[in-house]
Amino acid sequence: MSAPIRIGVFDSGIGGLSVLRHLITELPEVHYIYLGDTARVPYGNKSVATIAHYAAQSATFLRSKGVDMIVVACNTVSSAALDIVEAIAHVPVVGMIEPAARAALELTRTRRIGVIGTRATIESDAYTLALYTHGGSERLTVVQHACPLLVALAEEGWLAHPATLAIIEEYLRPLLDETVDTIILGCTHFPLLADAIGQVAPVTLVDPGYWATRHVQRMLGSHATSEHRLPRTARVEYYVTDVPNNFAAVARQFLGFDIGQPHRLSLEEITPIVTQ
Ligand code: DGL
């Protein structure tokens, strides 16, 4: 029997567990190594230079673990620093942007697409660029808006709180004014708020983690599972750069089950950047 494929998955923190959830549901036979930079999260309000530096360190760490592929389970890193990760990884790299943009283009009926994400993701224009690149020559409208408060609300577990609905309404107004029929949830935290977002905006919602997983499946030549159940047996090693006191509860919310005690890495352990 051949050794299982090893996929490295990293995020600025805990949010990438919403992507890992799709991966282990669809590809339970893979061995995953998850790294969350919980000591330095959030990345969404940092500069491109800082995000790129942190992403390079995470990619270097995963490379040292001998992974066969890296999934950048963070929209902010995928927007701002995918090229740096690709340069370091020496293995195929899958980000969130391309698969989600292509899915949105297939799902929209009116070719009016909204994108929400962190400030860094929106300011990078990465989704808009991908949509226009793959969108063909027919008229396409893209409206994007940064929604930084939603990150904290998702971590707080305020998934259906009236305050959350009010903030979503405020954030989505520019998208709804432009009558988008599809919204890309361009942040790892937003799929947790999909019900609340759907209540405010009854449109097609695109979860990048799901579509990135479908892309990984195609790359591995694997077929969609008919099970769609979280397997209890998936093999995952969890690494974090800090264990905040609400870690276990937030992780359970994003992943759907307890992850136990993660390996704690000091920032020094992920500092050396190997480019050769
Ligand atoms: N994981 C980030 C993303 O998907 C959200 C949290 C952060 O700002 O670091 O954009």
Q: Gap between N and C termini, in Å?
A: 32 Å
- Count of helical segments? 11
List how many beta strands DSSP finds: 10
pLDDT < 50 runs, ≥5 residues: none
Compute the average pLDDT.
94
Largest sheet: 6 strands, parallel
Cofactors, ions and other ligands in the entry: D-glutamic acid
Helix- and strand-based class? alpha/beta
What proportion strand? 15-25%
Overall morphology: globular
What percentage of residues falls in helices of 4 or more residues? Answer: 40-55%
Instruction: Walk across the major sheet and give the strand order.
Output: 4-3-1-2-9-10
**What's the helix-strand series?**
EHEHEHEHEHHEHHEHEHEHE
Radius of gyration over all CA atoms, rounded = 18 Å
Describe this structure in words.
The chain has 276 residues and is of the alpha/beta class. It has 11 helices and 10 strands. The protein has helices at 17-26, 48-64, 75-89, 97-107, 119-124, 126-134, 149-156, 162-177, 194-200, 208-220, 247-255, and strands spanning 6-11, 31-36, 69-72, 93-94, 112-117, 141-146, 182-186, 204-206, 235-240, 263-264. The strands form 2 sheets. A 6-stranded parallel β-sheet has the order 4-3-1-2-9-10, sandwiched between helices. It has a 4-stranded parallel β-sheet with strand order 6-5-7-8, sandwiched between helices. The longest helix has 17 residues, at 48-64. The two termini are 32 Å apart. Residues 11-13, 15, 41-44, 74-76, 117-118, 121, 151, 187-189 line the site of D-glutamic acid.
